[in-house]
Amino acid sequence: MINVVGVILMVGITAYACFGGADFGAGFWDLTAGGTERGARPRTLIAHSIGPVWEANHVWLVFILVVLWTSFPETFSSIMLTLFVPLSIAALGIVLRGSTFAFRKEVGRISSQRNFGAAFAASSVITPFCLGAVAGAVATGRVPAGGIAGDPWASWINPTSILGGVLAVAACAYLAANHLVAEAYRFEEPDMVTYFRRRAIGAAIGTGVVAVAGVFILNADADYLADRLTGVALPLVLLSGLLGLTTLALHLHRATASGARLARVVALGAVVAVVAAWGVGQWPYLLPTSLTLEDAAAPQVTLITVSIVFLIAAVTILPALGWLFWLDQKNFLDDEAGAEPVGG
Amino acid sequence: MAVLPHLSPVLTLAVDPVPWARSQMAFTLAVHIILVPLGVAWAFMALVANWKGIRRNDEDALRLARHWSRYMAVTFAVGAVTGTVLTFEFGLLWPNFMEKFGGAFGVPFAVEGLFFFTEAVFIAIYIYGWRRLPPKVHFWTGVPIVISGIGGTASVVAANAWMNEPGGFTLRNGKIVDVDFVGVFFNKAMPLEVLHMLVAAYLVAGFLIASVYAVAMLRGRRDRYHRLGFLIPFTIAAIAAPVQMVVGDQLARWVYNNEPTKFAAIEMVPRTARDVPETLFGHLTESGEVKGGIPLPGVASILSDPSTGTRTQIQGLAAFPKNARPTNHEVDVVHWAWDVMVGIGSGLFLLSAWFAVVWWRRRDIPRTPWFLRAAAVAGVASIAALESGWIVTEVGRQPWIARGFMRVSQAATGNEGVWVTFLVIVALYLGVAVTLILVLRQMARRFRENDPHAEQLLPYTPRARRRASVDRSAP
Question: What mean pLDDT comes out for the span B33-43?
């Protein structure tokens, strides 16, 4: 049973990394789009592309927290006590990000849009960095078992956490760039296709460099994880690298709409593989190497409840979510939907 | 060095995380709870307008529904992120509580997650689907929002009710070893508390939204659009108000029977007695005597159990050990909050009755501007009632986080930095709140100017699609 819940937790983290990640990454490109004039076009595309889906994408985070506290309450407590600082920053970042994004869409003045946009974009980078640092802290065993606080600073300001944070931001940017190329095709904006294709290539290379540097950092900083990633989880690591190279090849050699759509899926695959590698790398530990999933588990009934809820979610929410994405991709949803009909 | 002794109380205050954790939780919840009624009930009102619009080909009603869904997009976004903060705070502020009881208390949130997901998906489809989805299909995509709003409220309040009446788990050596899902979710406090909050959501959202249109009508905007904008939410609130009187009364009696310390605080009863007066306001002295206020002889006893009238006995605070009941100061807070809630609730009921009588006799809003003035105040007043009701249930449970099982002080984090996050979050939330109101007002002004080009001049509108949408809607 506990392995089922462990898998459910990983599914939640993977989904958040993919969908929430692409969403955060869009904010990264918003941040780096330059001044008001120059950045207007890419920002518009970004706003349109994530407008209808961003809230649903972030429910995955709530899902992860709920699975953690119901199924692994003691570990949840340890994580929250130890990583109070980065998690608080992440929570504040989420507030700033969501509200300023919603505000920006509805205000008329350029200067207000710029201020809200800056807050949105900055928090889009800070939040995934903090969450990545949290992942790094957990993966390297810096969170003690037993519902007690570890070091409030060294737990997340250390080589692996920094790597986790940077890798999270890079992966988000990579996902988003791939997504936005396909979106630019959808909105029929050829110059934006070129714009984001260039960034997708840059992000793929950048993420690759961070990942390779990560090998050395992990070797020096996280024995257990490094061993596992080069052992049992190696196929997943290699798969991820391969998929990353594939998107690179697609953008360099197949500059078509279908190529971009394929690259978007392959990019998601690359992130899924990385998260899965982390999951496999940690297994059977929840907190390497002090606490196994088995020992951390809540009572059986809670685990069964969580599994049932997940099952219900799988048969009800996933189709709805699929429909949302489908409607979005088929241009059934648009930003001006609530406005006055134009021209009667 | 001489200043250190003077500073030390300040330093301890800054360092002891418990009061800061309580303040932060109270503050973030107090903000979030204002957005809850809008998230839960506004979609229903938009659907009423939407239905009217489709069925009767009513252009005003459709315009209203469309504008409401735009506002909802903004308030729902802020509600979603402030709700996410609460999810974090369970762990950040109350790690020991979650460690011990997460396996039970946390379960309703798994259900809530389902509803939250559904809500987030369909609210996006509804808000963004106006133009391109067939009207009927579009209308039906709004229905899951209403259902998930109700389900989500039920789940979250079930968790809160569990704190008042923990059940559905087995403890062994201080650890939960077995959890009964039904026992946790449908704990004994849950049915009435959920009903009370749901009705409150419709009541507050109704009065709040109607109050905006009441102000507009007072300023002379009495066209059909504003009239509908007033009538739909106000009617719903006016139906909810009498229902809430009954539900609230039932819940109070439940508290009388099951949470005697909270009830003693509500009625401010120092010692167990019969023929207890209902004291309006007043306070407890340090020695625990009632001082000030207006006593209504015997009324508290009669209301607690009408069948035994003034002979009804109410257990006093002194009947419980000092460390298992609210402090005198907390009793004052609970009692005042109770009086405010009941007072405002009664006022809203009278306002609803006034409206109902006039509407029944001549199918119109009462003509005197005093009615609209009262309706304009009712919005803010209903929020005050909502906050007061929440204060009653939360402060009335003190010192417990899970009544009888764990104290708030045992539950809190040991993290000494909470005062920093508290101050940051207050600043951030105040900023967001002020901005939210400004943005909503700005949207209203833009809608009012009714300039179809105003929407299109936004720089965040891609050119290609702008042309496309013009083409599509051209005759």
Answer: 95
B contact test, residue of A151, A191, A307, A335 with most B CBs within 10 A: A335
Strands B290-291 and B175-179: unpaired
Prediction pTM value: 0.91
Give the three-state DSSP class for B391.
helix
Q: Specify the pLDDT at position B474.
A: 36
**Chain A: residue whose CA lies nearest to B87:** A62
From B157, B323, B337, B357, select the one nearest B238 (Cα to Cα). Answer: B357
Question: Which among A99, A305, A337 has CB closest to B110?
Answer: A305
* Nearest Cα to Cα of residue B29 among B104, B86, B96: B86
- Domain extents in chain B: 18-261+328-444
Q: Which two tokens stand for residue B136?
A: 């009927």
The token pair that represents B303 in the structure block: 């209301």
Distance CA B407, CA B401 (A): 5
Of the candidates B414, B373, B75, B335, the residue with the CA atom closest to the CA atom of residue A77: B414
A vs B: CB pairs below 8 A: 298
Tell whether the torsion through CA atoms of B156, B158, B163 and B169 is positive or negative.
negative
Average of per-residue pLDDT values in chain B? 89
CB A170 within 8 A of CB A206: yes
Q: What does the pLDDT average to over B76-93?
A: 92
Interface residue B421 vs chain A (CB under 8 A): yes
Q: Is the pLDDT of residue B471 over 50?
A: no
A111 touches chain B (CB under 8 A): no
CB B74 within 8 Å of CB A102: yes
Q: Tell me if A69 and B129 make a contact (CB, 8 A cut-off).
A: no
Which range has highest mean pLDDT (B74-83, B235-244, B436-445)? B235-244
Mean pLDDT of B396-414: 93
Asked if A343 and B473 count as a contact pair (C-beta separation under 8 A), the reply is yes
pLDDT computed for residue A336 by the predictor? 58
AA identity, residue A177: A
Given a cut of 80, whether residue B15 has pLDDT beyond it is no
A77: nearest CB among B99, B461, B464: B99
Q: Do A88 and B99 touch (CB under 8 A)?
A: no
Chain B interface, best mutation among A44, A53, A336, by max B CB count within 10 A: A336
Cβ-Cβ contacts under 8 Å, B109 against chain A? 66, 69-70
* B152 and chain A in contact, CB less than 8 A: no
Which of the residues in chain A have pLDDT under 70?
335-344
8 A C-beta contact, residue A276 and residue A10: yes
B125 interfaces chain A, CB cutoff of 8 Å: yes
Query: How far away is chain A from the Cα of B182, in angstroms, using its nearest Cα?
Result: 10
Q: Across-strand partners of B179?
A: B169
Give the integer Cα–Cα distance in Å for A13 and A7.
10
Are residues B459 and A98, on separate chains, in Cβ contact within 8 Å? no
- pLDDT band, residue B6 (cuts 50/70/90): low
B121 in A contact zone (CB under 8 Å): yes
CB-based contact (8 Å) between B46 and chain A? no
**Checking phi first, is residue B32 left (phi over 0); if not, alpha (psi -120 to 50) or beta?**
alpha
